[in-house]
Amino acid sequence: MLVGLVSVAYAKLIDFGFELFQRMLSYGAWLPLIVTPLGAALAIWLTQKCFRGAEGSGIPQVIATLQDSRLSKSLLSLRIMVGKIAISFLGILCGFTIGREGPTVQIGASLMYAMRRGYRRSSAHIERQLTLAGAAAGLAAAFNTPLAGVVFAIEELSRSFVARNSGTLITAIIFSGVVALGLQGNYLYFGQIKALTEFRWTLIPVLVAASLLTGVAGGVFGWLMLNVPRWMPASLVGLRRAHPVRFAFLCGLTIAVIGVVSGGTTFGSGYAEARGLLESHAALSPLYALLKFAALCVSYLSGIPGGIFAPSLAIGAGLGNVMAHVTSVIPLPAMAALCMVGYLAAVTQSPITSFVIVMEMIDGHQMVIPLMAVALLSTQVSKAIAPSFYHTLAHRFLTPTAPAPRQG
Predict the structure, then answer these.
(1) Could you give phi then psi for residue 158, rounded to 5 degrees?
(2) Dist CA 31 CA 24 (whole Å)
(3) C-alpha pair distances (Å), 155 with each of 136, 314, 348, 383
(4) Name one GO molecular function term (predicted).
(5) For residues 154 and 149, what is the distance between their CA atoms, to the nearest angstrom?
(6) Residue 204 belongs to what H/E stretch?
(7) Cα separation, 98 vs 14, whole angstroms
(8) Which helix (H) or strand (E) holds 44?
(9) Residue 311 burial class via C-beta count within 10 angstroms: exposed 0-12, middle 13-18, buried 19 and up
(10) Phi then psi for 260, rounded to 5 degrees?
(11) Helix, strand, or coil here: 388?
């Protein structure tokens, strides 16, 4: 129940932070050019000084602790949880392209891990059991998608461990979900959309094209973020390693410039833009997906605590917007949903989790087969470009000779 309560409070806090940022924009569209880089520098300074382990989304940290319980005390402490909440709030307050869903996974895992003290005889097995349950409950509460929480635990976090601990896992998700429902009501994350009512063979080429587009885009994101020294100028790589606060300042300035150029649409998680496309009332530039992609890459590279789930869904919706205008075969809401699941699956390489999340978020049961097909195909395309994003980052936490990544 505590995971659900904290997840809802965290969601409200992040929404409030972005609302304050939007109010600031009303006083001057140029203000992010000052606020965002300064906020980025402060956020990374605080992270480096006080909250090492809170970087990035938090999902790689959870995966690493499930594989090596010795890392739990440094990556799942209550101090890390507080830092995750506070600095991601600072990030969204400054307009960074980050989401709250990944951090909620680490927050949920940290809360449940702390409960090990309530056991008379704690063990590594109990700690892993609690961590897994907390992480899954956090994701379920973040998206209001209980089934996705179970699938996420099975597919992404700990494949063999889940079967022996399904009772604890499902119980945690149920209690977390009940609290979230009690506080926020029974809602759909993106609302109900106009789905595909019938499947026609003429749709197959469009589904394949959507899979290829999102698979390549998601795979390129993974490759870029996992191979930074191979493409970033050596001077910037050196600055990132030696002076992360200065590098974060440059990242913040870049994010601000992208945001100003986009008319403010790339700031934040992208929830409003994605929902607008799903409801067919948003008028976004065809360049939105590209600009959002760039803003997410820079936000990630800065090392600020924050997730990539929601921004990835927004990028996918932007790609769907382009495809809907090019093909006109599938209505915009359905095309946006298909590309959302495709891009998310390509980035995470977790196709089942991705299509279950999107299906539950839009009540898209009529689109199960197309969603599954695009998720599976885009994942295969992504795998040809880059390895598993989260698991590769988790391995870096597990490898003593490799420096712990500043983001995740």
Answers:
(1) -155, 95
(2) 7
(3) 11, 23, 11, 16
(4) chloride channel activity
(5) 9
(6) helix 204-226
(7) 10
(8) helix 32-50
(9) buried
(10) -65, -45
(11) coil
Please report the domains of the chain, with CATH numbers, ordered by start residue: 2-184 (1.10.3080.10), 201-398 (1.10.3080.10)
Element (H, E) at 138: helix 124-143
CB 336 within 8 A of CB 316: yes
Query: What digits encode the pLDDT tens for the residues 22-52?
Result: 999 999 999 999 999 999 999 999 999 999 9
Q: Note the pTM of the prediction, 2 decimals.
A: 0.92
Burial class (CB in 10 A: 0-12, 13-18, 19+), 400: exposed
Q: Which of 168-182, 295-309, 385-399 has the lowest mean pLDDT?
A: 168-182
Tally Cβ neighbours within 10 Å of residue 2: 17
Amino acid identity at 53: G
186: left (phi over 0), alpha (psi -120 to 50) or beta: beta
CB 97 within 8 A of CB 126: no
Dist. CA 286–CA 302, nearest whole Å: 26
Residues 6+ apart with CB under 8 A from 337: 193, 195, 278, 317, 320, 358, 362, 364, 367, 371
Chain-centroid distance of CA 315 in Å reads 12
| AA identity, residue 377 | L
Q: How far is CA 226 from the centre of its chain?
A: 16
pLDDT band at 156 (very low <50, low <70, confident <90, very high): confident
